[in-house]
Write a structure and sequence with these properties.
elongated, 2 helices, 97 residues, alpha+beta, disordered N terminus, Translation Initiation Factor IF3
Length: 97
């Protein structure tokens, strides 16, 4: 299940996208965007395509002309002690209102 962290100081919600069904995550994002001006979708590794799909569904299918992708941050983190690297993505969606 995805983990949802509220960030009150910035007026932004962070949602960690995992391997949940994409439409379920998209509906959660839409419901959060009804009360927030900004939402941050975060994913790592094999969950990155799900986060991209959720962002596309929300901005191009569900809330067309009401939301847009403000910023996309890409990064790579080192796993402690293992020596392998994992890609991460943060997609920030905002209301146009």
């Amino acid at each position: 299940m995805e983990e949802i962290n509220e960030t009150e100081s910035q007026g932004q919600t962070e949602m960690h996208i995992g391997n949940d069904p994409v439409m379920l995550s998209a509906v959660d994002v839409v419901s959060k965007l009804m009360n927030q001006n900004k939402i941050s979708l975060k994913a790592r590794g094999s969950s990155i395509p799900n986060a991209v799909a959720v962002a596309n569904i929300v901005t191009e299918k569900m809330l067309v002309n009401k939301t847009k992708v403000e910023k996309i941050n890409l990064d790579t983190v080192n796993e402690a002690g293992i020596g392998s690297m994992t890609s991460t993505v943060e997609i920030i969606i905002i209301n146009k209102n």
